[in-house]
Amino acid sequence: MTLSAPPREPTxxxxxxxxxxxxxxxxxxxxxxxxVAFWVRPEASPVPAVGDTVVDRTPAAVEQWAIRVFGESDKxxxxxxxxxxxxxxxxxxxxxxxxxxxxxxxAVGAFGLLGALAAVTRPDSDSALDAVPSLVGAAVGAVLLYxxxxxxxAPRAGAAARPDATDRSDRRGFLIVAASAGLAATxxxxxxxxxxxxxxxxxxxxRASLRLPRPASAAPPVPAGAQLRIPGISPxxxxxxxxxxxxxxxxxxxxxxxxxxxxxxxxxxxxxxxxTLPELMARRVVERDLTLACVSNEVGGPYVGNxxxxxVHLADLLRxxxxxxxxxxxxxxxxxxxxxxxxxxxxxxxxxxxxxxxxLAFGMNGEPLPFTHGFPVRMLVPGLYGYVSACKWIESIExxxxxxxxxxxxxxxxxxxxxxxxxxxIDTPRALARPAAGTVMIAGxxxxxxxxxxxxxxxIDDGPWRDAKLAAEDSRDTWRQWVHPWQAxxxxxxxxxxxxxxxxATQPEERTGTMPDGAQGWHSVVVTVEGA
Length: 532
Fold this sequence. Notes:
Layout: H1 12-40, H2 46-56, H3 60-70, H4 74-99, H5 101-120, H6 132-153, H7 171-195, H8 198-209, E1 261-266, E2 273-276, H9 277-281, E3 285-293, E4 304-313, H10 314-320, E5 334-339, E6 344-348, H11 349-352, E7 359-364, E8 367-368, E9 378-380, E10 394-400, E11 423-428, E12 438-447, E13 453-460, E14 466-467, E15 469-470, E16 480-488, E17 491-501, E18 523-529
Parallel strand pairs: 1-10
Antiparallel strand pairs: 1-2, 3-4, 4-7, 5-6, 5-10, 7-8, 7-9, 11-12, 12-16, 13-14, 13-17, 15-16, 17-18
Helix pairs in contact: 1-4, 1-6, 1-7, 2-4, 2-5, 4-5, 5-6, 6-7
């Protein structure tokens, strides 16, 4: 007579292994989905797809908090948070599967459907194939969890012949299957990354082969006195690797320049136009030094940089298409630039066409735009914050009105129009520095794009304001360095700076936050001067 194992309550070890099974199934599911996304589209991978959806639905105040606390690592922190949450849910699904095996697998499939839905409803999705990575990953994960829990529920060889045995599960088989699946998924993902995504590879090849045209109007050499030789001061031209990056893209778009197109359409456009990159570069090319600032930059913050850009005047392209600014009777007062990732940025038509160097740029500091900064083409409008002017990875320009359309940031509490506010920053000495008594060089940068910097003043503690020495001006569209020699005495001191722009307006003292149209106020640092 054969004895069958009677039903029993799961042990603590069973529950622990079931939670591990859920984690392994989730890991394998994500690894498989990531591998499939390499061949479909990297942005279709479930974590970036879900992350982008989370970003789009995050209150602006929370986004600003994340930027302030985590800086340019905010995207990595978000993705880590998503993975931690998925891990907790996966462990819970594993415990569910221990009680209801099929229900656990169904739950894995449900999360796959959510990932697929997030991928296909992204603004940059144009194919149902974006759902494939999440669906394939979920299917593999659901089957794996079913098998793993089956190992825990299956009697071990010989256990049925010992009715008094308390451990009848095939834990050894569970561990073998879990380890094998995990290693296989890791290996497959590693091979996929080593092989590279065809989409990303084509984009990288197109950038590597791109030869920038010589400008018809070259930027003049940077004045000899524009770069002060002060240790710790920001360089006049910011290297590409150090240029700030603030955007919502969890996966940097990799656009193939050979396939890139720019569509110009909307109200006031005589005839819709579509341009390729060679057609754009065949136009009159100009080179300009321009400072770009992010509206998320706190007083004294790092989200500002200066670079030498290569591109074409956007106003020329608009006029050829029949567009007129409102001051000349044009019907459109807003230009909406759309990125390949679905971002929309609204810019006043008047400012774009008032004679300033508003550019469609394809070069940055002597090389094609880096992918992180908008390759193959981005927009720049000096004097406006980036969120209303500096669309990266641009693919469409639509002429409309502010009344008819709100760009991405406006419903999230940001102003529709945002000229750059006059700002100044102390670069050296740093906050909480401990310089030695004697001559200390207080130095930094000030900016008020399209108005220029006329004066910078420094104050020590509650003393009088004293003029700093200004570096040579490159143009009113670039920042300006300054320095003030200070005879530092031992003790704790507060150093404060303020700037006056080319119109004669001086920075106000009161500090405000970044919302809705940029921070303002005086920048101060506290230092402790040590005795000789």
